[in-house]
Design a protein that fits this description.
alpha+beta
Length: about 180
Amino acid sequence: MKTGLKALPPSISIVPTASGHAASLCQAVDKVARERRWLAAVEGFSASETHLFVQLNQAAGVPQFVALCELTVVGWCDIVRLYPHPGYDHNGRLGIGVVAAWRGQGLGRGLLDQALSAALGAGFRRVELEVYASNIAALSLYHSCGFAVEGVKRAMRLLDGRVDDVVLMACPVGDGSLIQCV
């Protein structure tokens, strides 16, 4: 990471996602989803769905990383193919999350750095994401990593009495335009 950025806690390692991480990844996604604020899902996926997701991403060679505290997944980031059609396969969609107890310690930035660094090698030239407008920390992170707002879906989510906009963002990859978050 560049000088001046928060170093990861020494107990954390960021590694490519392996099949052996699927069970713990399943639990981490479920924890974040059940907060009912940050992800579109309000509960995690099943263990078998998570294992299949990891396997399919490995087979496709797309970037996927986990943040580990010992053997426990406390964060994740992946970039998956967005469209299966010719002429669109250079587009990826970012998925990222950090378990609540580990937020604010640089894990999101570290995960995003790893995924974006691997994106070009996986054939991506553009990475997009959707984020809730109320997620100020995530919006700040994405802006600092070169993502720009492409649009807003007004009042897209109504959950638990809370209305939220969905912000559409994208970032170019390659040609030196994206090397690392600053």
